[in-house]
From TrEMBL:
Provenance organism: Ectocarpus siliculosus (Brown alga)
Family, as annotated: Belongs to the CAF1 family.
Compositional bias segments (type: Low complexity): 403-416, 441-452
Annotated region (Disordered), positions in chain: 386-452, 674-705
PANTHER family to which the protein is assigned, alphabetical: POLY A -SPECIFIC RIBONUCLEASE/TARGET OF EGR1, MEMBER 1, POLY(A)-SPECIFIC RIBONUCLEASE PNLDC1
Polar residues biased stretches: 425-440
Highest rank taxon of the organism: Eukaryota
Skewed-composition ranges (Pro residues): 389-398
Cross-referenced InterPro entries: CAF1_poly(A)_ribonucleases, RNase_CAF1, RNaseH-like_sf, RNaseH_sf
Descriptive protein name: Uncharacterized protein
GO molecular function terms listed in the Swiss-Prot or TrEMBL record: 3'-5'-RNA exonuclease activity; RNA binding
Amino acid sequence: MNITKENFEQSFDVICEAIRSSHFIALDTEFTGLRLPGAAREKMMDSVQARYDLARGSCSQFMLTQYGICCFRYHDERLEARPFNCFVVPSTYHGSDRVYSCQASSMDFLSKHGFDFQAWASHGVPFLSRAEEEVVEGKLRRRWEREATVAAERKEAVAAKAEAEAAAGEGDGGAAAVEGPVHTARDGTTIESLQEPEKGMVKDALKKVEALLAESSSGGEYVQKSVKLEPMNGRQRWLMYEFVGSSTADVKLSNLPGPAYARPMEIRTVCKDDPEKHAEEEAKLRADEQARQLGDLRRAVGFRRVVDEISKAGKPVICHNGLLDLLHTHDKFVGPIPVDMDDGTRALHSLLPRLFDSKVVMAKAMAAGMKLPRTVLGEAHQWLREKYPAPPPPPPPLEEGAEAGMEPAEGAAEEGQQVDGTAVVATTSGGEANGDSKTNGEGAAAAAAGAGAVPPVEAGAEAAASERDVEALERARRGWDAVLAPGFEERYKDGGREHEAGFDAYLTGCCFAAAATVGLGVGLDELKRMASGEETPAALGSAQNVLPLYKVVGGQQVCLPGPAPKVDLSRYVHVSGFPSAARTDAVLASIKAVDGCVDSWFHWMDDTSGVVDCTSAEGAEALLRAAAAAADAGADASAAASGTPAAGDGGSGEEADPCRLSLGDLKLVQMEHALLNGGGRGAPEAEEQEGGEGTARGAKRLRRS
């Protein structure tokens, strides 16, 4: 369901009901950029704080374009999804005016995936963060206090005017009305000193006040009257308050909804004969105006109300590689992201206390034996669909009187036939399952007829399967392959909307459910109990409130509410002292020649240093021993040569062969947390931008690492 400002208010209750009735909620966002000009790139040697700093800088400068929400619930033992794809834009209410950046590559990416920029800019749902709402509400309340003070001053001025008129007589009253303090603004401006068209505008409004007062009491009994003035800018409205609003205590001016540069005003009369009724009407007018402004503020808060509802519901929230999604959520709907990571993770935990990242859960499922090829959303979901295909359509019923041995209808799946890579299990005419005479005939027939069942065996496996296997696989598919709830089928019924926030939220929830139920064996009842606030299933416990980081040494993660635990770096070795011409393949050849390091990986840090992932602590120790032995051997050879320069040290006048490296010429140390950087310029990325020979070498390093 697409949500815009035109249908947001009428859809809000639907969204809230979906949130409250869900068992878990998946989120996804789309935004205008990833990396600011001059900002560091992510590097293998980054610390968690360094990655947090990069993400915080990005989220504070770029803007959300879409916020996807998909509410999942188990209904009749089948996972059901309610996706909402929401266009969001910052509100400009009462002086709020966010400035944000757009990155060309990100906008191009959105465009290539069918993003509707017109819908975003013109029809996006406005929002204010909690911090922005507090600022605006504070401005409103200070304005109300000022207006109350000004109203009291005007009331005193009008009373003084009336006394002066009574003392001076009716003949002098006209002069007092023009020259008196009531017709002088607080900055000393008088009506006569105004230039046209402002002078004419004020005098016309004063004439309307006179006519309005006469009309309100023309029948002998006071009747409240009002007149609407044309839209005015801020200067013109100030003149109205200073001269028209202060001309008499028998009228009240108020702003009507509209943009600040062209906002209409309304003049309403108040009772001039009954002081109590006068005060009552003035109080009501002020209350009405304040209620209207608070209503405008509520509408300006807009989509933030949905985020507040998710936070209040306390349901498990699922994201995918979600650090940026969550920091954007905080920046746009709560307030500025804290600089310190521990403060930031506590703030995120306070906002969404029960968080799972589908990438983390899928990785756990893969470690437990699930054969997912990758944790990329689209690929993972496609693999699951192929692994657990939908059942073939049931054959049409036999016509009345037809023989049991008649030919199957055209297109019906036959026994042993492969459908979507899965063998079809058929039943015999006697009601026995194919290859298993002990299978209950009624249950097998139901499985063969479709009935939501999943084919129980994969291609190449034995065609016969017990009813228990069928039911187990049926439950597996029903537990993760969410059907779209009634009223939500149209937009995503055919899929194919990757990188639309609502659809990606749907994929995120499906992949989480598959990894949890199929990969980790979590039961549907356990997920339901978790949604109601009970204990998290043991299989998911270590994945709760953990966010992954992309390509970082030691598999470091962001943990909520923090602090991030220190990871074991014993399998990593820091290497420095490479000659400028060193090539990645030569480095790897030298490393993999060491016993125990055949499966090692190498990652450049800058032009002359990098880190080796030896895959085990034993491999790292072997590499360090080999380097020490090579260094000793090199020193002995140098001494034996009686001062003859070693090859490659520059003394021979020949350039070192970049395809040959000696570990003895390098400095290798055990990796330590102190060596993790806070994020600086990465050499490979810089070389790509600088061009020339460095470009090829930098690109080669990136490809090989």
